[in-house]
Amino acid sequence: MEKNEKQIFDEHQEKQSKLLKKYFLCLFCGIGMAFTIVAIILFCIDIEKEMPIVFISVGLFMLALGIVLYFAVPTKYSYDKYKSRLNKYGLMNIYELNAKIIELEKRIETLENRDKQ
Fold first, then answer.
1. What pLDDT, in 10s, does the model give residues 17-48?
2. Residue 113 CB: number of other CB atoms within 10 A?
3. At 107, phi and psi to the nearest 5?
4. Fewest CB within 10 angstroms: 30, 49, 63, 67, which?
5. Contact by Cβ (8 Å): 66, 27
6. H/E segment holding residue 48
């Protein structure tokens, strides 16, 4: 049963981590591109030069932040560390909680199938 729990946890944790990485990349790079486009438009209108510089710096910062977060978020979590932290502190983050819910749903399904037979 422990191997089954670990396998389900690993599969769903990796799936959720990849989805989180995509969200970070899309969100921050989208905001960064919007700020950069606004800065280019303001440069073309030729208003004051301070405002486009601020917009382009914020836009480039958001782009860089999205790329850094994409590479910084891990996709593999240790099941053993998760179990030890859960036993020691009783703490779970939302991704571990979602993986645990899916794991418990699979366990219930297995037990229901066993009872039907």
1. 888 899 999 999 999 999 999 988 888 887 77
2. 9
3. -65, -40
4. 49
5. yes
6. none
Residue appearing with tokens 């978020």 = 73
Residue 39's Cβ-count burial label (10 Å; 0-12, 13-18, 19+) is buried
Query: What does pTM read for this prediction?
Result: 0.67
Beta carbons of 24 and 70 less than 8 angstroms apart: yes
d(CA 52, CA 38): 8
Sequence-distant (6+) residues with CB within 8 A of 42 are 51, 52, 55
Could you give the 3-state DSSP secondary structure of residue 1? coil
> Tens of pLDDT along 52-65?
888 899 999 999 99
Rounded average pLDDT over 81-91:
76
How many whole angstroms separate alpha carbon 18 and alpha carbon 9?
14
Token duo for residue 45: 């209108």
